[in-house]
TrEMBL record:
PANTHER family, per the entry: PHOSPHOGLYCERATE KINASE (PTHR11406), PHOSPHOGLYCERATE KINASE 1, CHLOROPLASTIC-RELATED (PTHR11406:SF23)
Cited InterPro entries: Phosphoglycerate_kinase, Phosphoglycerate_kinase_CS, Phosphoglycerate_kinase_N, Phosphoglycerate_kinase_sf
Upper taxonomic lineage: Bacteria, Candidatus Nealsoniibacteriota
Protein name: Phosphoglycerate kinase
Recorded GO MF terms: ADP binding; ATP binding; phosphoglycerate kinase activity
The keyword Cytoplasm belongs to this UniProt entry's keyword annotation: yes
Organism of derivation: Candidatus Nealsonbacteria bacterium CG10_big_fil_rev_8_21_14_0_10_36_24
UniProt-annotated location(s): Cytoplasm
E.C. number(s) listed in UniProt: 2.7.2.3
Length: 365
């Protein structure tokens, strides 16, 4: 895979795929511009080499990127003059369809293509896998850094390697769990994804079973592995607001009308003891419904235990994880914050991401 320094970008028109899919509040204002800041080294390098920049990204919900471009201009200041900013890529159906004609139209704008959007490298979209077929292509500094650090986790981690996985959508995480269970010294699971595993393991009884496809994937896990650690107690309530009642219980004593909304104190203690001796830690997904103060303790305390381990190299990724770390003032205490949630997990599942494979298609300089 070529990188930005392998390509002749001086005085060239350079099309940069950014991932500026930032969270917006109800008034359309940027809540967190972390992803914008992470791409600045790539853009500043190109500007220094007198490249003419054409920047493209997507934004959830088909929203205008104007607010993003305005924020970027504030960071680049006078250096933003002469930059071309494209509108939301996903407003053209050819983007998600990976239409060759749309990819060609984008490619006609430039001489060189740079992918600095790790967060969408698991997508087979035109701006990710189509454009590199028609232009000399390479990775930006952010994409290069993401690949190097996450490759270390898979290929040569510092040990003990501890992986913490939470959040929702077990379907999108089960393959990563399976792969990381083989590679990690300990795998700690919390959040909503723990529940279907506890159900299949017949610890959490009387609950609706997951879809057959998910059950089959869970059954492939070595559920007897001493490296796999599931919650032994939880905070439970019939309502995510916690307004009715909140009680602590083991998963086996959860009623049908109740929800597991946070890991309990015994689980926090168990996880904390394992984290204490780690040399490398990867965290993807909060361990409870942290948005509500009554259910934030698990995510907050485990985050604090991780940052107190000064000997460990600490990695976190995923939108909800980053938001939680920001809420608790912990984000800057991690060694690496991945800009991709789904992309990070797919990479750690051992899959070759389409966006990375695409950069091998065109070797012209």
């Amino acid at each position: 895979m070529k990188t930005i320094k392998d390509l002749n970008v001086k005085n060239k028109r350079v099309l940069v795929r950014c991932d500026f899919n930032v969270p917006l509040d109800e008034k359309g204002r940027i809540e967190d511009d972390f992803r914008i800041k992470q791409t600045l080294p790539t853009l500043e390098y190109l500007i220094k080499n007198k490249a003419k920049l054409i920047l493209m990204s997507h934004l959830a919900g088909g929203k205008s990127l104007d607010v993003v471009w305005q924020r970027l201009k504030e960071y680049l200041k006078t250096k933003a003059e002469g930059i071309t900013f494209l509108e939301n890529l996903r407003n053209n159906k050819g983007e998600e369809e990976n239409n060759d004609n749309f990819a060609k139209e984008l490619a006609k704008l430039a001489d060189v293509y740079i992918n600095d959007a790790f967060g969408v490298c698991h997508r087979t979209h035109a701006s990710i896998v189509g454009v590199p077929k028609f232009l000399a292509s390479g990775a930006g500094f952010l994409l290069e850094k993401e690949v190097k650090i996450l490759s270390r986790v898979l290929e040569n981690p510092w040990r003990p390697l501890i992986v913490v996985i939470g959040g929702t959508k077990i379907e999108s995480k089960i393959k990563a769990i399976k792969n990381l269970l083989d590679k990690a010294d300990h795998l700690l699971i919390g959040g909503k994804i723990a529940e279907p595993i506890l159900i299949v393991k017949e610890i959490c009884v009387g609950r609706p079973w997951p879809e057959k496809r998910t059950v089959k994937e869970i059954e492939k896990l070595d559920l007897t592995s001493t490296k796999l650690h599931l919650p032994i107690d939880s905070l439970i309530s019939p309502d995510e607001t916690g307004q009715f009642y909140v009680r602590q219980s083991g998963p086996a004593r959860v009623r049908k009308d109740e929800k597991l909304l946070d890991i309990g104190p015994e689980t926090i203690q168990m996880f904390s003891k394992i984290i204490k001796d780690a040399k490398m830690i990867v965290w993807a997904g909060p361990l409870g419904h942290f948005e509500v103060p009554k259910f934030e303790k698990g995510t907050k305390e485990i985050g604090e235990k991780i940052v107190r381990n000064h000997q460990a190299f600490k990695i976190a990724g995923g939108g909800d994880t980053i938001f939680a770390l920001s809420k608790f003032g912990l984000r800057d205490k991690f060694d690496h914050i991945s800009t991709g949630g789904g992309a990070m997990l797919e990479f750690l599942s051992g899959k070759t991401l389409p966006g990375l494979e695409a950069l091998k298609w065109n070797s012209k300089i």
